[in-house]
Amino acid sequence: MLVAERQQKIVELVNKRKSLRVTELSQTFSVTEETIRRDLETLERQKKLSRSHGGAISVNNSEQLEVPYFEREITNVTEKKEIAIEAVKQVEEGDKLILDASTTAWYMAKSLPNISLTVLTNSIKVAMELSSKPQVTVISTGGTLLSKSLSFVGPLGETSLESYHVKKAFISCKGLHIDRGISESNEQQARIKKKMIESADTVYIMIDHSKFGIQTFSHINGLEMIDHIITDTKVDSKIIQQLEDKSLHLIKV
């Protein structure tokens, strides 16, 4: 098969499947992984696809991977607000916290009292909300701005998190799978959330019932890295039992 023909078929496959890993493409076309990586570099320069860590993403789908903030604000609002209020109950004066760029974290920031706290975040919305509470010290991760989610990601943000250690991290995600852990639809969000989890003594995952049993594109961590899950009462009883079997502490609101 000619190089141009292979590359065209790669684009077709990636568009059809939305995302593919280098190993899969290597097996499909019976060429080395290094050859596939060179193909992906070429195709990305031609704007025919977007490379990700270990694979490629369809450019026809990449815009949908990062859901706009205004859309997330109106999805499962009641559950998110209740989860956020419960999360605030886990906070004590003097705590050093991480809040991610989820809408649930924003609701949490709105509910936090004006007490002595330090909050590290990659969210513009969270930082702005806390700016009206003078006793709360806010530290931004910095990084590359994703306009759809109003959040900072990328190497600068990830590196800044390595400089800090906090007591508690409050993280949301797109999916929680019993066997495959937690995941995000956007790879850059997944990478920075992984760093957030690594920087905290105690990790709280804040998700509503719709996120359970879901595995999205980018893996964040296994369930062994989670200490508590704050969720609503609509979670299926079978999932609750499976999580309890893994010694995970569920806080239901």
From TrEMBL:
Keyword entries, A-Z: DNA-binding, Transcription, Transcription regulation
Q: Which residues belong to any copy of the HTH deoR-type domain?
A: 3-58
Coiled-coil annotated residue ranges, if any = none
InterPro entries, alphabetized? Carb_Metab_HTH_regulators, DeoR-like_C, DeoR_HTH, NagB/RpiA_transferase-like, Tscrpt_reg_HTH_DeoR_CS, WH-like_DNA-bd_sf, WH_DNA-bd_sf
Q: Which GO terms describe its molecular function?
A: DNA binding; DNA-binding transcription factor activity
Asked whether the UniProt record includes Ligase among its keywords, one would answer no
Mind telling me which Gene3D superfamilies this protein's record contains? Answer: 3.40.50.1360, Winged helix-like DNA-binding domain superfamily/Winged helix DNA-binding domain
Q: Which Pfam families match?
A: DeoRC, HTH_DeoR
Q: Does the keyword Transcription regulation apply?
A: yes
Can you name this protein? DeoR family transcriptional regulator
